[in-house]
Amino acid sequence: MLKSWRSYESKTSQENKTSSIANDEVALLAERLEFFIPKLMDVMRPWQWLLYIFFWSLFVTVIDRHDLATWSDFLVKFASRIVQNVATILPALYLIDYLRPLLKRADTISVSGRILLLLMSGAAVSATLIMLVMINMGWLVYNPKAFLLNVLFNVVITGGFTSVFLLYFLRRHRELMTLKQSFEQKLTAQNDIIKARISPHFFFNTINSLVSLIETNPPRASELLQHVSALFRASFNGVREISFEEEVALCEHYLAIESSRLADKLVVTWQLPDDDMMYDMVITALTLQSVLEKMLLNVVEMTTETIVIDIMVTWQQHRIVINITVQLPNKTFIVTHDLRRHINFHIQAERLKIFFGQSADIKSTVTHKQILTIIDYPLQDVGL
């Protein structure tokens, strides 16, 4: 919603230090998001609406000039159009703004219907009153059929005019909502990355493990600290494309850190391509690591049994497929429905799609016996 330079100058003036342009614009945006029709009298000032009505009345009068014999007839009809449109539009705009709190509670179709009915009813009333005044003044000859057709013509024109504006406001509202959703997804992705970098759960568990090992096993504490340093250094580099060997190394650093705390509860097996093939493979940083982190958090930490995680990586027909299979515990009860809700890799999949295209995806299937997660994305084999 546009604001004049004068309003900004007022907000930034010495006399108005308490005003905030940012807060004001945020408030306006919030209003546009919660309701598809802006404050109409804020969109344009009254004189701007009057100017718009003037040219609109001129346009309609020119279209409907078939029965006008002289310029005086044209001017009379043009003036009557202006008065009629002013009497229809301006009160309706003020009324719509006044009723905004009530209109916000209704659905879009209901609101649109009410506004359309309001303006069309106003057009019928104002057209009737204006023509009655003109008949009394002798400027118009009364003809029941012509009278009715004129009222109907004004109602239809007003209805079409209103519908166009409602469609425009609805389209703008949808665009704003799409931008909002896109922004929220990006913000969620950024928050997810930040949490991955310094997850409080992971961070404090690691600190506790280090404190314990410093007293009981200093060499092991030094080794663990090296793993922590490597993982955090990589995570703070942000989302980027790295070699698959680097991603595997990051996963091993992460698993080494967690193994110091989980002891014998975790067994991870790898089935990787040969070194020559892995040399040409790339992936988005921390994609596989974040999948393993969710598995540990939602499965391994929920049981005292040993959990086996099998990771198999293949590269065939220009696609990389990573199968992560987690065998669920037999004795510990884990609610499958909760697992399906928590084992969600939408953010990681979106990050993959940014680098490798829309065919990249991460899908997870949860059964009573296992969780199968498949990371699948295209990658051209440069060696072919």
UniProtKB/TrEMBL annotation:
Keyword ATP-binding among UniProt keywords: no
Keywords: Kinase, Membrane, Transferase, Transmembrane, Transmembrane helix
Domain Signal transduction histidine kinase internal region: 191-266
InterPro entries: Bact_2-comp_sensor_kinase, Sig_transdc_His_kin_internal
Domain of life (superkingdom): Bacteria
GO cellular component assignments: membrane
Regions crossing the membrane: 49-66, 78-96, 116-141, 147-170
A molecular function (GO) term: phosphorelay sensor kinase activity
Protein name: Histidine kinase
